[in-house]
Amino acid sequence: MTHDHGAHRGRKRIHLAAHFPGVNNTTVWADPRSGSQIDFSSFVHLARTAERGLFDFFFLAEGLRLREHHGRVHDLDVVGRPESLTLLSALAAVTDRLGLAATVNATFNEPYELARRLASLDHLSGGRAAWNVVTSSDAFTGENFRRGGFLDRADRYTRAAESVATARELWDSWPAGAPRPFAHHGRHFDISGTFDVARPPQGHPVIIQAGDSAEGREFAASAADVVFSRHGGLDAGRAFHADVKRRLGAYGRRPEDLKIMPGVTVVLGDTAAEAQEKAAEIRRQQVSPQTALLTLEQVWGRDLSAYDPDGPLPDIDPDPAGDVAHGRVRVADPLAVAARWRALAEAKGLSIRQTVIETSGRQSFIGTPGAVAAEMAEFVAKGAADGFILVPHLTPGGLDDFVDRVVPLLQERGAFRTEYTGTTLREHLGLPAARQPDHVKG
């Protein structure tokens, strides 16, 4: 590949990552190009496409229990997907530079074992490991661990923050040559011993975080290297970006020490009209009549199976205490959400299905390859994001067109790398090296 032209120097570079889809209704299962969600070949194809596109990392979501709706496994969950760290260890052997990011729950895992597994992945991949730190406070997930709802919701971030801090102490406890004894005495963990895996090549694997609450933003500012955000619009993205970045100074960190990368979808067409038509069709496929009712039931907290998806919204109010779904995020204020949806449906004459499509099925970037490249570059240039985590609607070929048609245009604009210049994920992201504390240096 060619090197960057000097005229492009000084422009903000875009960071890109690939999300393997599957959970929720992003994936269009009915498309004839839709492949397996569990075969290793699907993961290999998407990862190699991302690496061909010079992406920073490949991102795997994960849940610890299959979600349920009306007591049955939720139709849109993937059954049989391999465990993330195991799968990424296998992908390390068939990729060379691509970062490998695993979602691992900090509520139901212990720091010592997590630190061992992440350090092992970092060694196997030559410094490409990342940990997306997630939490869970629900007893439904906890039943798999004989713990139930052992942790109050308010404590989930305090445990997560201490879990990350403890893992970093363990990674730091192995200076050059041999390990030194460690001891951590905190609110959630009281452990001591000797860590049995050498210090990872990155020092600390990259930490990713996706919480949007005030606690989540503070946790990101204090401990994360990357934020996986959901703010796709320019104004909302700029507000979130500014809010999280301003918190960094309190922890002795610089704005460039944390990368904010919203999850986005892309629909390409040869013309703007074709792209819009394709996007509308994808939204219709993503929100089937059944999916529309499932989504509505999550807001209303009631069995709405008797309603016609092509008919009007229910005239009954949501039941705030209703519990038809397990393992899904509860709607914070269902009465307010229902009021907004009713106002929208009345103003536009929308059915249940049309309302769900309108409120939940939007694509982030729609247009010709040139228009999408320009809009992405504008988002980063105007401080709405540092990059994007692309969530395709097809497995495993959903990023093929983007890599073939958009990445070259981003490179021509000087907005994206034309080659990998480093070998580790920290180098790809432009993050500072994880320095070992002086008291444990060998």
UniProtKB/TrEMBL annotation:
Binding-site residues, FMN: 103, 157, 213
Q: InterPro entries, alphabetically?
A: Diverse_substr_monoxygenases (IPR051260), Luciferase-like_dom (IPR011251), Luciferase-like_sf (IPR036661), NTA_MOA (IPR016215)
Task: Please indicate if the UniProt record lists Flavoprotein as a keyword.
Answer: yes
Q: Which key words are in the record?
A: Flavoprotein, FMN, Monooxygenase, Oxidoreductase
Q: Which residues form the Luciferase-like domain?
A: 31-384
Q: GO terms for molecular function, please?
A: monooxygenase activity; oxidoreductase activity, acting on paired donors, with incorporation or reduction of molecular oxygen
Q: Does the keyword Metal-binding apply?
A: no
Q: Which family does it belong to?
A: Belongs to the NtaA/SnaA/DszA monooxygenase family.
- Name of the protein this chain belongs to: F420-dependent methylene-tetrahydromethanopterin reductase
**What species is this protein from?**
Streptomyces eurocidicus (Streptoverticillium eurocidicus)
